[in-house]
Design goal:
The protein has 397 residues and is of the alpha+beta class. It has 12 helices and 19 strands. α3 runs antiparallel to α4. The protein is globular.
Length: 397
C-alpha cells in the first residue's frame, strides 16, 4: 500500500483525501487546524502549518510517504517542494516552487523565456513606490506578489488612486511586496495542464466570469471555452511554454491568460490544480479526465491517465448575497432537483456575515451543472441558483 501525504485538510483538500483513499492508499494529512474537516477521512494526522516549510519537512521525514501533494493552494507548494527534494520524491524543485508562488519571480521567468506577459513594475516597499511612481502607466493592476484568490488585487485608474491602492495590496501581501502590471483588456481564460516527463498536456481551457473592476473576483467558469479555435491554439501554446518557463516538469498547473487584441498574454500560474471547483468538478464533467487522480499518480511516480472519455459542457456559478448577517438558507434540496444540476456547495452558513465581494472568500455558495452545451449548463446554474433562498438581516438594524 502506497503512502500519500496531503498538505492541508480543509474542505478544499477533501476531494484529494477521498480520492487517495478510494485509490487504496494510506493517507496522512498535515494541517495547523486540529478540527479541519478532512482529518477524520485520513488515516493519520500531523499538526503542522501547510506553509511552515520546516514543519512540513519534519512531517515528511517522520511519515516517509511515497508521494506528497496538495490540491489547489499556492503557498504550500514551497513546503512540498522542500520535502520532496529532501526525500528524493517526484515533484517540482524549490526554485520552481518560488517562481510559481512569487509573482515577481514568475514574471521575470516569463520575460527570460520569451513568454508573452504584461509590462510590470516591482515595489518592494514604500520607498520603491516613490522611486518608481513616474514609471507607472494608467490604468494598471496592483496585486501582492504572494497571495491568491483575488486577495489584494485592485484596478488603479489614475495617480490619485495609487497610494490607497498600494496600502490595500500591501495589506494582503505576506512579504509586503507588490507588483504593478499593465491593465490588459480582453477575454480572460484559465487553462488546466498536466505536465508529465517534461511534456505539457492541456486538459481544458475555461472561460471565466468575474466581478470586473476594481477587484476582479471570479464568479463563474465554463468548459469548454467558446473562443474560436484559432485563439485556443495560441492559448494552449502559451500555457505550455509558460509552465516550462518556470520549470514545471512533472505535475499539474493552473494557468491564467488574457486574450488581448495583440494575442494572448500571461496573467499568472500556479504549480497546482485549479480551485473554484474547476479541477474537482468541471474537468471530469466536461472531459471525463480525473485530474485529482492524475496528480496523485504523478506524485507517486506513476504515469497518469489523461484520455478524454466525455465531450460535454460544465459550468460553475458562484452566489453572492446582500450585506448583513445570514438568518436562514433554504431551497438546497430544490436546487439539486433541477435538471442538469450536479453539485451545490455552501461557503457561508447561518450566523455568518455576508459582505460585498472583494475576494473569493466573500462568495456565499456555488452551483455546478453539466449539459450538452455551455449555454444549457449556464441556464441550469441560473435556474438552480434562483431556488436558493438566503435571508439576510441588515447589521444596522
Amino acid at each position: 500500500m502506497s503512502k500519500v501525504l496531503i498538505i492541508g485538510a480543509s474542505a478544499l483538500q477533501l476531494p484529494a483525501i477521498l480520492k487517495a483513499k478510494e485509490m487504496g492508499h494510506f493517507v496522512a494529512v498535515a494541517d495547523y487546524n486540529p478540527d479541519a474537516i478532512g482529518i477524520p477521512y485520513a488515516d493519520q494526522y500531523f499538526n503542522a502549518s501547510t506553509i511552515d516549510v520546516e514543519a512540513i519537512c519534519k512531517v515528511a521525514q517522520e511519515f516517509r510517504p511515497d508521494g506528497i501533494m496538495t490540491l489547489a493552494t499556492d503557498m504550500p507548494m514551497r513546503s512540498i517542494a522542500a520535502a520532496t527534494t529532501q526525500l528524493g520524491l517526484p515533484g517540482i524543485s524549490v526554485e520552481t516552487a518560488l517562481k510559481s508562488t512569487d509573482k515577481w519571480e514568475m514574471i521575470k521567468a516569463f520575460v527570460a523565456h520569451g513568454v508573452e506577459a504584461p509590462r510590470y513594475v516591482f515595489l518592494a516597499d514604500e520607498k520603491d513606490l516613490q522611486t518608481h511612481r513616474s514609471e507607472i502607466s494608467y490604468p494598471c493592476i496592483m496585486k501582492p506578489t504572494d497571495n491568491a484568490g483575488s486577495r489584494g488585487v485592485i484596478l488603479v485608474n489614475n495617480p490619485s488612486e495609487l497610494d490607497d491602492a498600494y496600502c490595500y495590496s500591501r495589506s494582503q501581501s505576506r512579504s509586503g511586496r507588490v507588483i504593478v502590471e499593465e491593465y490588459m483588456r480582453g477575454k480572460e481564460v484559465s487553462v488546466e495542464v498536466i505536465v508529465y516527463q517534461g511534456v505539457p498536456h492541456v486538459l481544458a481551457v475555461t472561460d471565466k466570469l468575474t466581478t470586473g473592476a476594481p477587484y476582479f473576483v471570479e464568479m463563474g467558469h465554463s468548459q469548454p471555452s467558446q473562443l474560436p479555435e484559432t485563439d485556443l491554439v495560441q492559448i494552449r501554446d502559451l500555457a505550455s511554454r509558460a509552465v516550462l518557463a518556470v520549470g514545471i516538469n512533472n505535475g499539474p498547473a493552473h494557468v491564467e491568460i488574457m486574450l488581448t487584441d495583440k494575442g494572448p498574454k500571461m496573467v499568472e500560474l500556479g504549480a497546482r490544480m485549479g480551485g473554484d471547483c474547476i479541477t474537482t468538478h468541471l474537468v471530469p464533467l466536461s472531459t471525463g479526465i480525473d485530474m485529482v487522480k492524475a496528480t496523485i499518480d504523478i506524485a507517486l511516480g506513476k504515469e497518469p491517465d489523461l484520455r478524454q472519455t466525455i465531450h460535454k459542457a460544465s459550468v460553475v456559478r458562484f452566489v453572492a448575497a446582500k450585506e448583513g448577517i445570514i438568518q436562514s438558507i433554504e431551497g438546497e434540496e430544490e436546487v439539486l432537483r433541477q435538471p442538469n444540476i450536479k453539485h451545490l456547495q455552501l461557503f457561508k452558513h447561518i450566523g455568518d456575515e455576508s459582505t460585498e465581494i472583494h475576494n473569493s472568500l466573500d462568495r456565499v455558495a456555488c452551483v455546478i451543472a453539466q449539459a450538452a452545451t455551455v449555454s444549457e449548463a449556464i441556464e441550469a446554474c441560473k435556474q438552480g441558483s434562483e431556488k436558493l433562498k438566503i435571508v439576510i438581516e441588515n447589521k444596522a438594524e
